[in-house]
Specification:
It is a single chain. It contains 9 helices and 20 strands. It is of the alpha+beta class. The chain has 2 domains: about 230 residues, P-loop containing nucleotide triphosphate hydrolases (Rossmann fold, 3-Layer(aba) Sandwich), CATH 3.40.50; about 130 residues, OB fold (Dihydrolipoamide Acetyltransferase, E2P) (Beta Barrel). Strands 6-7-8-3-9-10 form a 6-stranded mixed beta sheet, with helices on both faces. The chain has a 5-stranded mixed beta barrel with strand order 11-12-13-20-14. A hairpin with a 2-residue loop joins strand 9 and strand 10. The protein is globular and about 75 Å long. The relative contact order is 0.11.
């Protein structure tokens, strides 16, 4: 185990980590994960996927049932939370309501026996960093939700930990404030270079903030990639469906071709060429994945490798684009994002029979999974 821990630049390592609460069901299954120093890693997944449990094991609030967790190359399974030197930010802020903001920020320094002058200096600097230098003498109840969350972030950073854990920290904020805080936390991370492990079930939040994202489902990391890789090249049906909007078409592999591409016969009888991501042989059931923004309505000749007939069932105006819902290949929930400039043309009108087309490289043949609606 000690040998495995010695990996350059990894501040955190999970080695064969498992977690069970009842001794039978594994909430986290054989997790192996390296987090390099300075990275912003987000653990993303639905409720019950294992992401928060993984964070709590790293923080020391939950013991691992099996395996070892390393921090800076040292095993920490038996190290209590307060001795791990990790900053924590929670959804409910966890600020002391009877203390001023200065006192809240001074607390983690005082328990670490920092001198008075250094405490005052660090509190002043961190308040400036989160752009709340005038709020030191107020109490948490006198601040807005967004200001309280900034103070919670400041308190996690004030003792200059190398690692900060954030558990759904923006979940209680309204949409506009949440988006603003996403950028603020991202910029603080960039300025300080601290390692952040962030937990959320909000995929747009994860895409906005992260260097890499670990997508959890059923206690297993389904894919660990950069935001762009995750969105553009999902490795399975769960990731494709969980990250962003996605059109899925059922079918069977009619021809594998060169192994990189395949031809799929849809349930409707249409033949579609796609990238063979994780289909193995002719006859395999598959789910095709194609993003709404990769599809064109009435594509110009030669601009699409795949063309299917469809009918526009609904148009929804969303400002920068129009969301067109079509009936395509027996599905009535096929979505195309149409640029705003196309609105008003005869080709894009409710009830209109149209062609939809896309490049084969933008269509991925994935494992077949039934999704609940």
């Amino acid at each position: 185990m000690a040998k495995e821990a010695a990996v350059p630049d990894s501040i955190v390592r999970f080695v064969n980590v498992q977690k069970s609460y009842d001794g039978e069901t594994l909430v986290v299954k054989n997790l192996n994960l390296d987090i390099p120093k300075g990275e912003f890693l987000t653990m993303l997944g639905p409720s019950g996927s294992g992401k928060t449990t993984t964070l709590m094991m790293l923080a020391g609030f939950e013991p691992a049932t099996h395996g070892e967790i390393y921090l800076k190359g040292q095993p920490i399974n038996n190290v209590p939370p307060h001795k791990r030197g990790i900053g924590m930010v929670f959804q409910n802020y966890a600020l002391f309501p009877h203390m001023t903001i200065n006192e809240n920020l001074a607390f983690p320094l005082q328990v670490r026996n920092f001198g008075k002058a250094e405490v005052e200096d660090r509190v002043a600097k961190i308040l400036k960093l989160v752009e709340l230098p005038q709020m030191g003498n107020r109490r948490p109840g006198q601040l807005s939700g967004g200001q309280q969350q900034r103070i919670a972030v400041a308190r996690a950073l004030v003792f200059e930990p190398e690692l900060v854990l954030m558990d759904e920290p923006l979940g209680a904020l309204d949409k506009q404030l949440r988006e603003q805080m996403q950028y603020e936390i991202k910029h603080i991370h960039e300025r300080l270079g601290v390692t952040v492990v962030y937990v959320t079930h909000d995929q747009s939040e994860a895409l906005t903030m992260s260097n890499r994202i670990a997508v959890f489902n059923d206690g297993v990391v389904q894919q660990l990639s950069t935001p762009a890789e995750l969105y553009e090249r999902p490795v399975n049906s769960f990731v494709a469906q969980f990250i962003g909007e996605n059109n899925k078409l059922k079918g069977r592999v009619a021809d594998i071709g060169d192994g990189k591409t395949c031809t799929v016969k849809l349930d409707s009888g249409d033949m579609v060429k796609a990238l063979a991501v994780n289909v193995k042989q002719k006859g395999d059931q598959t789910l095709l994945s194609v993003r709404p923004e990769r599809v064109e309505i009435n594509p110009a000749k030669g601009s699409a490798d795949v063309t299917l007939k469809g009918r526009i069932a609904e148009l929804i105006y969303l400002g920068d684009h129009i969301r067109a819902r079509l009936e395509v290949a027996g599905h009535n929930d096929f979505v195309v994002k149409v640029p705003n400039k196309a609105m008003g043309s005869d080709a894009v009108a409710q009830g209109r029979e149209v062609n939809v087309g896309w490049k084969a490289a933008d269509c991925r043949a994935l494992d077949y999974v039934e999704f609940a609606h």
